[in-house]
Amino acid sequence: MNRILVIISILTALIWGCKSDPVEESAVYDPTPYTLSLRDFPDPEILPSNKPTKAGVTLGRMLFYEKALSKDGSQSCASCHSQQHAFSDSLRFSIGVEKMQGKRQAMAVMNLAWHKNGMFWDGRAASVHEQALKPIQDPLEMNEKLQNVVNKIQSEKKYREQFIRAFGNDSVSSEKIALAIEQFEFAMITNNSKYDQWKRGENALSPEEERGRKLFFTENDPQRNLRGAECFHCHGGFNFTNDEFMNNGLDAESNQSDPGRLNVTMSPSDKAKFKTPSLRNVALSAPYMHDGRFQSLEQVIDHYNAGVKNSPTVEFILQNNLLPGGLKLTDQEKSDLVAFLKTLTDQEFLQNPNYKSPF
Fold first, then answer.
1. What are phi and psi of 334, to 5 degrees?
2. Can you give the pLDDT at residue 15?
3. What is the DSSP string of 36-99?
4. Residue 20: its pLDDT value, please?
5. CA 287 to the chain's CA centroid
6. Burial of 214 (0-12, 13-18, 19+ CB in 10 A)
7. Cα distance between residue 168 and residue 176, in whole Å
8. Over the stretch 191-224, which tens digit does the pLDDT of each residue have?
9. Other residues' Cβ atoms within 10 Å of the Cβ of residue 57
10. DSSP letters along 262-288, please?
11. Residue 56 · residue 32 · CB < 8 Å
12. pLDDT in tens, 222-256
């Protein structure tokens, strides 16, 4: 009889040993809202179904840095979106788990709560949470199946507990993973650069920076005696982007190897059009353009000054750039523009511990 009891005890221990660790009783649903640090920014239009909560943002941050989202456990979202580079990639093309290059430069992740016109350079994802799942499945990036990711996350006690806090139960799904990452990315706000502080009257711009600011926000029209760089047409507003898809004249039609937005809309009028990125923290997010062809701000300015190429879909607002000699900016004016662009660097954002890895 005693032997039977011993065998039953051993079998019971083995059975329970195979089960997942139970979650802590302290892991309860916590819908406490997360307060976005808006400062002078307008309220973003966030769907009521996924308003950021403290628990949801915490979970999203964990998942943003979680390498289990990739096939071989070597890469996370942060691998190609590092904080020191304004949550972009310093490589021209990111390298995926299979050691293959991506096709476009990794866009910076910031102020996404105000992006309402599609994600990625071509806008193929309608929302931030839809965008969050695509790199996981992309063979050139994380190259993993969503169900495998769900299984891996579900097996971790720390995640089951955090899903309870964020969503009310420990059931993991790809949709919840995407929503949590979206909440964290909504919380990644940059709005405290030197320029922002200047607008609030908290500091002063140097003479060079002020000259660059005026150039940035002034049209270039000799007939009206206006001498500027016209940057604000595409990079205006509080977020320094118009959130549109545009052909900025990188290549003549015969050299346009990437169809851009055309691949999504199938409209010839969208050929070679790409999303206008925000210029916030631009001094730290090189290389530039969808294909990372420019390594410096000076090269970018040289392009707009005298390097814009004409094609059927190039933006009309670049007509002055297409004139013989382009905008004819002087070396001093180019230097002034670079100085102003550097005032858009937000050290608080780049060093914020709330955006760093929680592991």
1. -65, -45
2. 41
3. ---TTSPPP---GGG--BHHHHHHHHHHHT-GGGSTTS---HHHHSBGGGTTB-SSSS-B-TTS
4. 54
5. 14
6. middle
7. 11
8. 999 999 999 999 999 999 999 999 999 998 878 8
9. 23
10. HHHH--GGGTTBEE----TTGGGS-SB
11. no
12. 788 888 999 999 999 999 999 999 999 999 999 99
What is the per-residue pLDDT for 7?
Answer: 47
The two structure tokens encoding residue 32: 């406490």
What does the block give as tokens for 343? 């005032």
Domains of the chain in start order, with CATH, are 18-190 (1.10.760.10), 194-343 (1.10.760.10)
Token readout for 315 is: 């933006």
Q: Distance between CA atoms of 162 and 227, rounded to whole angstroms?
A: 55
260: which strand partners?
A: 273
- Please, what is the average pLDDT of the chain? 93
pTM of the entire predicted model: 0.92
Closest CA to 336 of 220, 229, 237, 248: 229
Other C-beta atoms lying within 10 Å of the C-beta of residue 198: 16
Supply the DSSP symbol for 307. Answer: I
Side-chain half-sphere CA neighbours of 61 within 13 A: 18
Amino acid at 217: F
Determine the number of helices (DSSP H) and then strands (DSSP E) in the chain: 13, 2
Res 26: pLDDT = 81
Tens-place pLDDT, residues 94-149: 999 999 999 999 999 999 999 999 999 999 999 999 999 999 999 999 999 999 99
Which two structure tokens, joined as six digits, stand for 158? 């720390």
The residue behind tokens 């094609």 is 311
Beta strands in the chain (DSSP E): 245-246, 274-275
